[in-house]
Design a protein that fits this description.
Structural class: alpha/beta
CATH superfamily: Metallo-dependent phosphatases
CATH topology: Purple Acid Phosphatase, chain A, domain 2
Low-confidence stretches: 24-33
Radius of gyration: 20 Å
Strand order of the largest sheet: 3-2-1-12-13-14
Mean pLDDT: 89
CATH architecture: 4-Layer Sandwich
Largest sheet: 6 strands, mixed
């Protein structure tokens, strides 16, 4: 069994009105001015795979049953920042299921990830650019805050995102001489930031921006993080783990792929991210956004694991990743932990609930 095991999905694009197989459902006209959302069949297949292929209870998994340390959803939970779309996305995350199943008592039953045990920090998520869109009549401009309202903690619901446009400590695990810690960071454009134009095309629809204040605190900067900043916290945590003779494994989860080839999907000022990961000794950055699965080095210390669009409609393929982490095979030669990334892809026929199957595996380093 691997030391740590993560399930990484991204770009669910859940909408109040599904846009299925390239056409509107019969009688539905409300998405005329909206964006392509999710494919219900793929959402159902994804939730079913998670339910059938992992142990999500609070106790250690039974013999022969693989467990996951985290289920990480790296942004674009919803099609837009409209509360209707966001609430539909939250329903997929934690609508109450029929006991012992992954389906709600609705008619017809709907898939839900709420079987992931609420007393653990297994399931964590963060916003993407679609989740921060203002309404269509404002041009889908950035910086909307309804995501923070819908996914926050309430008196009757557990919370997923209570921090606004900043960073959050997802959680950690200690096992077999290694310590894992995951942080989630929101690099969506702020309300005053309209991105970078590409000729006459607006950049705010698909761009994000790395801010020094988010990484280093205010007034910190590269090489001089302010106390309590993300980089400062990661450095102090790694030092504390080494003092306990544990190998620290720092992972950052973001939405934007720093290697996006389309300038309209660019993570602006991504050089700051590369520098910060080096200073914070981050070994992996998990992301989505471009709907392309890739494994690519960001620096000599950090690898980027980009996930495809897991349940978005009208995609040539829908992917997610299972990431297994083990100690370095030869610490004297390469002290980085070993990552095994297995990609699962949906192959169900259009209009039917198919299945996700393994299509490839990469080992890093």
């Amino acid at each position: 069994m691997p030391t740590f095991r993560l399930l990484h999905a991204s770009d669910l694009h859940v909408g109040l009105t599904p846009y299925t197989f390239g056409r509107l459902p019969p009688g539905k006209k409300t998405r005329k001015k909206r964006l392509i959302s999710h494919d219900p069949a793929v959402v159902k297949a994804f939730v079913q795979w998670v339910w059938q292929n992992g142990w999500w209870g609070p106790a250690p998994p039974p013999p022969g049953q693989p467990g996951f340390d985290f289920l990480l959803l790296t942004g674009d939970m919803a099609t837009t920042g409209d509360q209707g779309d966001l609430r539909a996305a939250r329903q997929v995350v934690d609508a109450d299921p029929i006991l012992g199943t992954h389906l709600t008592p609705a008619n017809p039953p709907a898939p839900t990830l709420a079987f992931v045990h609420p007393s653990t920090t297994h399931l964590r998520l963060l916003p993407g650019n679609h989740d921060r869109y203002d309404p269509w009549y404002r041009g889908y401009t950035p910086g909307a805050t309804d995501f923070d309202i819908v996914f926050r903690t309430t008196a009757v619901q557990r919370g997923y995102w209570d921090i606004g446009q900043g960073w959050d400590r997802v959680g950690g695990r200690v096992r077999q001489g290694m310590a894992l810690r995951v942080w989630a960071i929101d690099f969506t454009l702020r309300p005053w930031d309209y991105g970078k134009r590409n000729y006459l095309l607006p950049g705010w629809l698909g761009q994000g921006r790395v801010l020094a204040d988010v990484l280093y605190g205010n007034p910190g900067g590269p090489g001089k993080p302010a106390p309590g900043s993300l980089v400062d916290e990661a450095q102090r945590w790694a030092k504390a783990m080494r003092a306990k003779e544990l190998t620290p494994v720092a992972v950052w989860a973001i939405h934007f792929d720093p290697f996006g080839s389309n300038p309209l999907l660019e993570l602006l000022d991504s050089g700051l991210l590369a520098e910060a990961t080096r200073e914070a000794n981050v070994v992996a950055v998990l992301c989505g956004h471009t709907h392309e699965t890739k494994v690519k080095p960001l620096t000599d210390k950090t690898v980027v694991l980009a996930c495809g669009a897991t349940t978005a409609a009208a995609e040539p393929c829908n992917d997610f990743q299972v990431i297994e982490i083990d100690p370095p095979s030869d610490p004297a030669v390469n002290p980085r932990p070993v990552f095994r990334v297995t990609v699962y892809r949906y192959d169900g026929p259009a209009g039917q609930v198919g299945a996700f199957h393994e299509v490839g595996r990469v080992t890093v380093p």
